[in-house]
């Protein structure tokens, strides 16, 4: 039984299982309020209560982090270049970042049907091609592409976060977690979105 589950994780059967790794990260980031289900022999995406709850939680959590960071007048850049100009710039940056993140999450909810239709269309094309004896065999390549890009993404983000923390630590500066969240989370969301859409387009 465990071997079959492991095989499914390594050898994808369709476009949905090929994107399973990034689906998991998107779900726990609040950007993917869906669950992959198989009904009447067809696989598809279904909006779930827990997915909506995850999206709502992330919006509230990161909103609180941004507001607290602005209230404390702290920022990663401000620690390195403290001046009136950077203070004003940080305020604008936080406002724009907060608005951008809310826009991203709202877009995920508003345009959710488009994503469902896109995956359904890709599935129909693959199934019709298979009936004609044409097998693209791109599922495994898609999964490997996703794993590779996500590994690169997390390496870059880890270096970025660790490097910033070490520099602050050397200066005996210990910012709150909310500051790190407010500063680095937009980069994480941006990278994750780029990887997802890039790999999705590459899969086509």
TrEMBL record:
Keyword rRNA processing attached: no
Any coiled-coil regions, as ranges: none
Spans traversing the lipid bilayer: 20-37, 49-71, 91-110, 144-167, 179-200
Keywords, alphabetical: Cell membrane, Membrane, Transmembrane, Transmembrane helix
Pfam family membership, one: 7tm_7
Topology class, membrane: Multi-pass membrane protein
The UniProt record lists the keyword ATP-binding: no
Compartment annotation: Cell membrane
GO terms (BP aspect): sensory perception of taste
Name the record gives this protein: Uncharacterized protein
Organism name: Lutzomyia longipalpis (Sand fly)
Taxonomic path: Eukaryota, Metazoa, Ecdysozoa, Arthropoda, Hexapoda
């Amino acid at each position: 039984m465990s071997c079959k589950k492991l095989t499914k994780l390594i050898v994808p059967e369709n476009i949905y299982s090929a994107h399973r790794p990034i689906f998991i990260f998107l779900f726990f980031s609040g950007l993917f309020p869906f669950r992959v289900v198989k009904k009447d022999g067809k696989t598809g995406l279904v909006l779930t209560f827990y997915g909506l709850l995850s999206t709502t939680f992330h919006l509230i959590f990161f909103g609180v982090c941004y507001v607290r960071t602005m209230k404390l007048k702290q920022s990663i850049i401000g620690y390195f270049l403290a001046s009136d100009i950077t203070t004003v710039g940080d305020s604008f940056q936080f406002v724009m970042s907060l608005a951008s993140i809310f826009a991203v999450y709202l877009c995920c909810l508003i345009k959710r049907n488009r994503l469902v239709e896109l995956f359904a269309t890709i599935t129909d094309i693959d199934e019709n091609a298979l009936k004609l004896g044409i097998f693209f065999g791109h599922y495994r390549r898609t999964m490997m592409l996703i794993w590779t890009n996500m590994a690169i993404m997390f390496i870059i983000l880890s270096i970025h976060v660790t490097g910033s923390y070490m520099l602050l630590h050397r200066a005996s500066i210990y910012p709150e977690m909310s500051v790190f969240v407010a500063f680095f989370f937009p980069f994480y969301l941006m990278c994750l979105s780029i990887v997802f859409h890039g790999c999705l387009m590459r899969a086509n």
